[in-house]
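[step 3/7] fold_predict: job queued, chain A
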Amino acid sequence: MKPCALLALWLWAGAAAAEVGAARPLALVEGEGAFAQSAAEPGLTPGRRGLRKGNVHMELWASDIQLANLAVKVGGGPVYLTLLAGIEPGSRNEARFSFGLGVGGHVVMSHRFWLDLDVTGGAVQPVQKPLEGDGGNVLGQARVMLGVQVLPRLAVFVGPTYNLWFVWGQPDFASVTRMSVSQSQPKADQRLQHWPGLQLGLHF
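[step 4/7] structure written:
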């Protein structure tokens, strides 16, 4: 299966599963705590409705790791599951894509501002002959996203990340980031890189 088709199938599966399981969405409201939640009621005034209405959300962003990333976030309450994928264009030997999943929490800070914090795990693969070779890798990220709601279903977000990339065997890439990394070798055929990163994108 081609990398683009694999990424599309990964994200479509997450969105489809979420739509099937979505019954009556819960809306975050500004209450006594950041995680206050209640069922959407017909008489609830628009001014009291919280952010991120609905159970399924999409995100499109750029980061220091990949130019184009897409995620499906499942969950209309304070906890969400995210399925993410991305692609980095380049020459034949440098183009790569990634896929992963994670879990996080959503905090309403005010009527327009919210904060997402999550941890994700996945892998980075070359576009040419993915999932082949004598080695493998795992990419872990801790992400903080500060969102500004500009429309009811559109927000802009920005935030830092902290990344760990563990590689074993014959690596496909020397590095997967534009940032400077700190590197160690637990064993002769293993590498561990970690670095702070940055991301900027849109939330739908």
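[step 5/7] annotate
The first strand starts at residue 26 and ends at 28.
Helices lie at 3-21.
exit 0
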